[in-house]
Amino acid sequence: xxxxxxxxxxxxxxxxxxxxxxxxxxxxxxxxxxxxxxxxxxxxxxxxxxxxxxxxxxxxxxxxxxxxxxxxxxxxxxxxxxxxxxxxxxxxxxxxxxxxxxxxxxxxxxxxxxxxxxxxxxxxxxxxxxxxxxxxxxxxxxxxxxxxxxxxxxxxxxxxxxxxxxxxxxxxxxxxxxxxxxxxxxxxxxxxxxxxxxxxxxxxxxxxxxxxxxxxxxxxxxxxxxxxxxxxxxxxxxxxxxxxxxxxxxxxxxxxxxxxxxxxxxxxxxxxxxxxxxxxxxxxxxxxxxxxxxxxxxxxxxxxxxxxxxxxxxxxxxxxxxxxxxxxxxxxxxxxxxxxxx
Amino acid sequence: xxxxxxxxxxxxxxxxxxxxxxxxxxxxxxxxxxxxxxxxxxxxxxxxxxxxxxxxxxxxxxxxxxxxxxxxxxxxxxxxxxxxxxxxxxxxxxxxxxxxxxxxxxxxxxxxxxxxxxxxxxxxxxxxxxxxxxxxxxxxxxxxxxxxxxxxxxxxxxxxxxxxxxxxxxxxxxxxxxxxxxxxxxxxxxxxxxxxxxxxxxxxxxxxxxxxxxxxxxxxxxxxxxxxxxxxxxxxxxxxxxxxxxxxxxxxxxxxxxxxxxxxxxxxxxxxxxxxxxxxxxxxxxxxxxxxxxxxxxxxxxxxxxxxxxxxxxxxxxxxxxxxxxxxxxxxxxxxxxxxxx
Lengths: 342, 342
Description:
Two copies of one chain form a homodimer. The first copy, chain A, is an alpha+beta fold. The first copy, chain A, has helices spanning 8-22, 69-85, 106-123, 174-191, 203-210, 216-224, 239-250, 265-273, 278-284, 300-303, and strands at residues 31-33, 40-44, 47-57, 90-100, 126-134, 140-149, 165-169, 231-234, 252-257, 291-295, 309-317, 322-325, 331-333.
């Protein structure tokens, strides 16, 4: 090691991942896809297994002062299931590792696991292993999920083609707005512990933050309708950032339309109350765990009437850039602000 | 959640794992084996995949004041490979998640990854994914390893039969003794930073602690000799504790012989210097990552001349208990002290 010191902040989280990935060489033929998508893909007989993992730390990814333990357990599973969904695969197994400080009682661990087991039940995954250890600082949760698919069913980030239609499920921005509300009420509480948090009227957005759903319902529906998205990713870092990932991996551009972006009324109203631009929340809010995908035009008629799939734009040539047409008809360049922990 | 508060220390790490495992229901036929062995087993065409995961935290599992980052990276991979080996499977892929505090520079991350990549190269595994995030406190490393085997090649903890021979590879106790030396020299250094740590003459034991090897060499040799152990486990928590796991899972007892237990001369001498009983180090020292396994008597002749496999005892009926015959011929009950982080 030389004496040079480069701060991680200088290259950022994605920069660090790119930097580390450069040195990785794939040797086994059975490794069909390594780093660079929502999950890795390995051969398994006539099917493939998809594998994804997430590391969640107290104080970075969650705050136990407002995240109820059962919700946290559910969310930790859901975010991994969401990555399996984003490959168009079906989650089957998870491993769950936790590190606990001694302020955790057995009852608290049970509360956390009640959420983990509820999510395992809900998404039909088996908890097959894990590790349980002590922590000198906060709670750490590491989950690995394994899914199953036929090879031809997989959707990668890299398959979007010019003229494909860009689709997104559900609505966006709610989880970010919910987080702002939870943080605001936490500050109020810290300033005056006798104040009761004001969460009435914010259930939807706080629910989006505290107990998100992975959109497995959509994956099952796509299978029934025999639609395989040409590309797919889950919205964990914000719509704009995910569009950039698809464009980069597929070598394409994109144009989306502001008036097509799905936002819930409570998200919109709360954003305004918080002096946040609702469209910025939709474009750059993280943790919605909706699915962003592209379909071939021939599949449009199959999805056209789906109440929870929104058609927000189309795929263009790379040289056309990544654009948004605003409600007033102005064309602006998208910026991928993303979600920074460093 | 009721108001009752049970400390984790009251039930211990194994107690907590048992408590949490009770509530887990396996639903998929493709989950062949869940919690309770060195790794889980899932169906994958005509082969099976074995899956294991480990969570390592700074201040609990390692101390960066004496663990060089490349060694730490190597060890983090090796301990997972060792769990795959303990199933008699071949590791193929790993995911690597790390959480980094801002005192880590990009160069430090590179040093850690140089060890991870060296181990991946050494054990022939592909790094297929992971997660990289910030940590508010220390370094966290979470690795999941996936291995491959034919179903009939697997060795579980549960297959030991009465009259099987108990085998252990390499030598034991070194990693514990090495840790004591590293801790001693750290205290000397903390008391007087101008003192240079005295590690001459302790290279073997400190190496056992800092950069252990997973015994994949043995797994490959067993395959060549067409020996499938009737049961197997890796020695991560100490020989006695691992023997208890095999006895419990197999419903058997065991008798081992003190004079057959393998100990390296440096381990022995250093233990004596540290006023530790060498046999206690062998029985209860953790982190040696050797393989403990049982074989059918018919396979003994195939392994008899192997220089690095030691025949330390035999399997008995459960009601005969777990015994050690000392050098003086006395029969004592084994105690599984294990390795406690809580």
